[in-house]
Amino acid sequence: MNAIDKFNARADAINSLLCVGLDSTLDKLPAQFGGNQAAFNRWIIEQTHPYAAAYKPNMAFYEARGEQGWRALRETMVFLRAEHPDILTICDAKRADIGSTNAGYVQAIFDDLGFDAVTLHPYLGREALAPFLERADKGCIVLCRTSNPGAGELQDRAIDGRPLWQVVAETVRDGWNANGNCMLVVGATYPDELRQVRALVGEMTLLVPGIGAQGGDAEATVTAGLNAAGKGIIVNSSRGIIFADDPAAESRALRDAINAYR
Which of 116, 128, 142, 145 could lock onto 165 through a cystine, CB 3.0 to 4.6 A? Predict the structure, then answer.
């Protein structure tokens, strides 16, 4: 079972396409956690796991704290592997470098921390990303059409009459996915492009951030992004769930909203 199979199995088991982003910004943690990111993450997982097919920590919120943050991330991953081994784990690291450096990232993210998947920049090309792509058991989630407002500055640039994001989608589809372990990042804030990417890549699974705090719409996301199997999208919400008054209710409501349009 590779990372995509793991997600599909979990999605079927709990009837959910929801990913909860563990973006535990230190200054927003409730006072009762005393700045303990790992304890906060455990609580969020305990509240939301009945509805979560994936969890996605963003590395920035842990790396910024140095050794303390790395320890919190490691403790979170140990907890997830021990208590919820069937839930997909995504390292939102957006890594990209030359091949020898990426080999170190592979060891840290896949082997040391034990993540199932990682987000990656395509800019350095297939040769540089080979250490990730060659791990057939792991998921390689390549940035394609990101959810941020300034995404179009480069991603909309025309290459032989096609926007760069389309070139990335076609390149991953045709050249990088030999092991069937590639996915693409396509933001919920761009449903038209999401629909076009789905048409381009067939059944490939897409990580779709931007629901909730960034303004993405559940109905537009689901209707544009689903594949023929009624899955194919990992719909992420971070701040909208983890800093809600009731994370369990918020995650259940988003799970239900996604399912209403499936």
Answer: 145
Q: Which of 6, 28, 94, 138 is catalytic?
A: 94
Is residue 217 exposed (0-12), middle (13-18) or buried (19+ Cβ within 10 Å)? middle
Question: To 10 degrees, the CA torsion angle through 156, 162, 166, 170?
Answer: -150
pLDDT tens across 235-255, in order? 999 999 999 999 999 999 999
Q: How many CB atoms lie within 10 A of CB 123?
A: 11
Confirm whether 231 is a catalytic residue: no
CA dihedral 128, 131, 136, 139 (to 10 degrees): -70
Radius of gyration for the alpha carbons in the chain, expressed in angstroms and rounded: 17
Alpha-carbon distance of 14 to 128, in angstroms, equals 37
> In this prediction, what percent of the chain has a pLDDT beyond 70?
99
Q: What is the largest CA-CA distance in the chain?
A: 55
User: Taking the model in full, what pTM does it have?
Assistant: 0.96
Cα 72 to Cα 25: distance, rounded to the nearest angstrom: 12
Q: Can you give the pLDDT at residue 216? A: 78
- 202, 180 Cβ separation under 8 angstroms: no
1 pLDDT tier (thresholds 50, 70, 90): confident
In the three-class reduction of DSSP (H, G, I as helix; E, B as strand; rest coil), residue 183 is classed as strand
Q: Which residue has the tokens 């990656």?
A: 120
Superfamily of domain 3-260: Aldolase class I (3.20.20.70)
